Amino acid sequence: VYNLNIGYLYIYYTSYEVILMPEISPQSLEQLVTRIFRAVGASENEAALVARELVTTDRMGIDSHGVLRVPQYVGWVERGQIVPGAPISVVRETPSAAVVDCGHGFGQVSAYKALEIATAKARECSVSCVVTLNCNHVGRAGAYAQRAAEQDLVCLVTVNSPYAGHFVAPWGGREGRLGTNPIAYGVPCDGFPIVGDISTGAIAEGKIKSLMNKAQLLPPDTVLDAQGEITRDPTAFYGPPKGAILPFGGELGHRGYVLGLLVEILGGVLAGNSTDDQTVTGNGICFIAIDPTAFLPLERFKSLVRETVLYLKSSLLAQGYARIFVPGELEFGRSRMVSKIELPPTTWEAIVQVANRLGVTVG
Amino acid sequence: VYNLNIGYLYIYYTSYEVILMPEISPQSLEQLVTRIFRAVGASENEAALVARELVTTDRMGIDSHGVLRVPQYVGWVERGQIVPGAPISVVRETPSAAVVDCGHGFGQVSAYKALEIATAKARECSVSCVVTLNCNHVGRAGAYAQRAAEQDLVCLVTVNSPYAGHFVAPWGGREGRLGTNPIAYGVPCDGFPIVGDISTGAIAEGKIKSLMNKAQLLPPDTVLDAQGEITRDPTAFYGPPKGAILPFGGELGHRGYVLGLLVEILGGVLAGNSTDDQTVTGNGICFIAIDPTAFLPLERFKSLVRETVLYLKSSLLAQGYARIFVPGELEFGRSRMVSKIELPPTTWEAIVQVANRLGVTVG
Fold first, then answer.
1. Do B173 and A264 lie within an 8 Å CB cutoff?
2. Model-level ipTM above the cut of 0.95
């Protein structure tokens, strides 16, 4: 699902139009995105945090959650769906649990604040569970799991989507009833932390759109058309009438459905939202943070995790594979290697247009 | 993965040998199994609990974790791997967390005791996390999730397996490094609770054996042979040299691997076990219990879950499906309908042999 072909500068797009994108370092791109968010009213800290998150995600090769989102976020700020500087407030709380109202602030800013509450509670109480209300798009779920793991906590992160993002059909159904509902987790380890981050849908909606634009076929067993038949035609997803994304798992897709529903319960229902409430916007994020020192000394835990990693990697390889990766390793490796960012031309053009409109100088 | 053809009494087996199994009610089977465990030294309570769990699992159609296990458990008791009457002890504890040493008692008995600790802690602290040491085979993970949900708690349950059960290859590898590591969860709901229970491996080892005995092919994308190529020949799994089960997910099997590793971390490493420690026996179970009343009133939570269920079921159906099930619903439905149990002849014969050897009268 990740695009590894990032080693070229001239990018061919539909109808063979050649578009030149300037060579841009991750740092320069981050500064540009920061200035864009500053221009729509974000504080320096907010703007820099959101920019850093989006650019880091691009560096990891996860385009769907990268700077592609900049024009969308700007639009949301302009329409009042994102409220820069919104304070968070805890609306219900016990020593180890909280419902955090994010007041429609930037999703990444809100989610890190909610995570801080979760990690503080886990350190105090060994285990914690924190959910959010009115939280905008949080980006990559694994980012929060990684942060917690870097602070020596085990952390599960689930992210559900509201009605408008219900692209995934329940098993046996043909209409979207759940989001692509990712599950992420972070585990402290000697060396870099383990960061798992998986979607419970068979394909991202953005990926379907991208394949449609390129007139390519969908991967098998990912999408149902409006009649409920498996299709490889991306236009059949958009309709009208609309199709739906299958839960992940192929023949065993009922398992993806089981996991997707768990995410909805944790991130949505536990926060008090009704799944079919069409007025809800943004993501529902749930953090379950666990302090391993409640169970064993930290150094012992991290060293056992390291042993597990080495044991996994000690397996002989399957045909066609060059290496066994631990979750997160590929993304960490990529982000370290990237010295310049190259974006699809539509993404870059949209960012430039937004910058121009806001009077932000590009380059 | 479940056998729905339970409506016949005469069962045809390899080489068309016809074996007659007596018609037996779930109650009679439970009593027989109870008497067998009593005969190897279990107390009445222990024996009845384990018998009830195994027969309930058969009633739900999940043969792999049913009375098929009786001869295995009896063997373990005789060899000292299961110690009837073993007390559990809490070896490390905070108000919301515990490591419970099960002292090699019956897995089901131990796991329910550990669950009681987890549920009590969740009621006291809103969230809890309890892991086990020296816990024998716990059977169906969903059973514990269901029990917690019936007590109005949300509960995640993971079960990992020790070295001897490492049938599942890491993604990119061809040697077993993880168990089939199920993830289960229970959610209180108006009506029956939601009980999800999925394996993170593409196929159960018992299913491979059963297909081999029937000289049938494996489902696609489930097993690697010893050379690391996908195979449909069940004998290629057993070798020698041995093959491995793939993580579940087909083309997206790296996601099954991500989940399987999470289960190993929670159930194994958090309890202080090394993943490649060959002296560890039995399962590692991890309970994460959450009291929804820390977040919203219970009746509101249950009614929102019910709304979610109805919303899922309101989807039009996919081609070839007659109904949208909520996780656990199929199994609850089956277990209510079953008025007599019919077992594969090998299973029944093995139980009768064990009973005879122990001087327990059958029927």
1. no
2. no
